Amino acid sequence: MGHGTGHGADMDDARAWDERLGWAYGLIADDPAERAVALDHLASARRRTDETRHRFNEMLRSVQGQGMRYPFQDPQLRSAHDDYLRAQSRSLPDGVWNTWDKDLAAWPGLPYALLFLEWEARYPEEWTRHAKAWGTKEGLLRHLATDTVGRHPVARAKLLDLLEIVVRRAYRCKDREYVRIARVVDGDPLRVRLEGARRSENPWAQLHAGYVLWLLDRPEMPNSRRVWRTWLADARQ
Question: What does the pLDDT look like over 91-109, one tens digit per residue?
Answer without folding.
Answer: 999 999 866 667 788 889 9
